């Protein structure tokens, strides 16, 4: 087992059941990187990928490149350089670590890392438009800053760049097929997520936790699994290793999404960059809410959700009904499943 591969295993003394406490450490813990080292791992991967990512973005129309740079935290509206946050880079890190997990140098996965980061940004641009979200990472979203049409156009351009980047690799056809399959699942998951909003809180047509889990695996897990799998593929791994890393990433994606749901209700806005109780104000059908609705207190939870009750009161009842603990339990279960998939690597 290589040193890089061992970084994906549970370290001595770590708790195999530890749940991620936020999106920032959902990936490192699932990959069994000690929490204090998580930031360094992500920073190393971002530094490796950044030059190629900037080069790829620079190949598109200058206005589109500016919008992409704004989304990535590189610039302000108008193109003035900025030192803002472009996110943690979890997906690009998974691609790099996927290559290292199969004994290949991380640099072999750079095209994969660039492609999945471009797809991630593309999905955020479109997702913000569909959800009507006006802020992301404490700044106006791209559609709010530039307009809806330009934001959609920028997303389309980044998707094209992602495909172009993968197609130019030695494993181009297989890599593009992997990405296409992930995008099919991502679109399926996003469609289900949009339809969930119109479904009732109770009755036979209500959204159940198992349906949520399937949607989360598609909407969030598909791209995380694809990232790790593409890294392994470009690193020369055999198909079983590629599939194992895809499974690990998908399981991780569900944990990642559930933790994000927890933060959407109980997270600190100073850390998350999102309004407190934001998901409850929008009455989103997130995992903690669905789990609470399935509890003996489900009737009381439903009544509050259907009323104009203050979100803090709703959050307290959801926690009392076990929604928060159920969410963290499910996140831990998915982390264990991700580790089990990693254990299949040679």
TrEMBL record:
SUPFAM superfamilies from the UniProt entry: Terpenoid synthases (SSF48576)
Molecular function terms, GO-annotated: metal ion binding; prenyltransferase activity
Listed Pfam families: polyprenyl_synt (PF00348)
Annotated stretches, region: Disordered: 1-23
Keyword line: Magnesium, Metal-binding, Transferase
Residue ranges with Low complexity bias: 11-23
BP GO annotations: isoprenoid biosynthetic process
Database matches in InterPro entries: Isoprenoid_synthase_dom_sf, Polyprenyl_synt, Polyprenyl_synt_CS
Family: Belongs to the FPP/GGPP synthase family.
PANTHER family: (2E,6E)-FARNESYL DIPHOSPHATE SYNTHASE (PTHR12001:SF71), GERANYLGERANYL PYROPHOSPHATE SYNTHASE (PTHR12001)
Protein name: Polyprenyl synthatase
